[in-house]
Design brief:
alpha/beta, Rossmann fold, four-stranded antiparallel beta sheet
């Protein structure tokens, strides 16, 4: 599946730190997210992935370091300013307005709407109605793109987990998003809807030029969508490369499993040997292992 051609850096993170007292959640991370890419960000629990997202997206202030977006320093800017620059971030738990319909959730996303000022509600009702018609049309186009038009009039709180994730993705389509940070988009989502979400991400990247950075633990999903993949561990960037190369990287295996590949193999061999000895066998004796001289299993009476 061909994706949008990558270009210059959309996001650059340089020597970023975020400390909570003595705990270094992000500890000198540096990385680049190329324009037009779908970049994966993986790592074990506690690696600092979500904290990094929150610092880039302005939810948290960095302890030190710098973040630039298309060459502009955005370090420490609040989320609403970054929103207007086209930087959006979704969360592991969807944040919908549960008592509003799905369509209404989408229509309220764009800022500076005419109906938000008291004067306009008195004197510019025609303009407000015209704007609402345009927003409704755009919302319906988004719902059709995401294949969830059938729930347009459903209360958002009644949606499934996967549908709520699609709704969050739809919100990014109601404004001119340049880069979207997706935090565990697959959490609580069934395989069918996860495939739909993946299709939508690829289409937004290819057809509309969105740049994505995706936190996800499902390596099949990461492997299908993301290139490159960045690995974090203990608040630092540990490795970067294709999904295949990352899954073979010994440092990555050690970060996830707590032991290197060689040690893992050695542990498995030792375990097999211990099992064989406990059953009267010697390692490597094949089909005859564990049998006594009369051909019966050792220990049989």
């Amino acid at each position: 599946m061909q994706r949008m051609k990558q270009g210059s850096a959309m996001i650059q993170v340089h020597d970023l730190h975020k400390h909570f007292g003595g705990f270094r959640a992000v500890d000198g991370a540096s990385l680049t997210i190329e324009k037009g890419s779908i970049t994966g960000l993986i790592g074990p629990n506690g690696a600092g992935k979500s904290t990094l997202f929150n610092v880039i997206a302005g939810v948290l202030k960095p302890t030190s370091g710098h973040v630039t977006m298309a060459g502009e320093d955005i370090t420490g800017l609040p989320p609403h300013e970054l929103f207007h620059k086209g930087l959006l971030r979704t969360f592991q738990l969807a944040h919908e307005f549960s008592s509003m319909t799905v369509r209404e959730n989408l229509m309220m996303v764009p800022g500076a709407q005419c109906g938000e000022t008291l004067v306009n509600t008195w004197f510019r009702r025609g303009r407000i109605r015209e704007e609402e018609r345009a927003l409704r049309k755009k919302a319906d186009e988004v719902l059709e793109f995401l294949t969830i038009s059938h729930v347009a009039d459903e209360k958002a709180g009644n949606l499934s987990g996967g549908q709520k994730k699609l709704l969050e993705l739809g919100r990014t389509m109601m404004v001119d998003a340049r880069i979207v940070f997706l935090d565990e988009v697959g959490a609580g989502v069934n395989r069918t809807l996860l495939g739909t979400i993946g299709d939508a991400i690829v289409r937004l990247n290819k057809e509309r030029g969105y740049t994505f950075c995706v936190i996800e633990h499902d390596m099949d999903f990461i492997g299908r969508l993301c290139d490159p993949v960045i690995v974090m561990a203990a608040g630092k960037v540990l490795a970067q490369g294709s999904a295949d190369s990352i899954m073979k990287n010994e440092a990555v295996i050690e970060a996830y499993l707590g032991t290197g590949l060689k040690n893992k193999v050695a542990a498995e061999v030792a375990e097999e040997a211990a099992f064989g000895e406990s059953h009267g066998a010697q390692p490597g004796l094949g089909a005859e292992a564990g049998r006594g001289g009369d051909g019966k299993p050792a220990g049989d009476m």
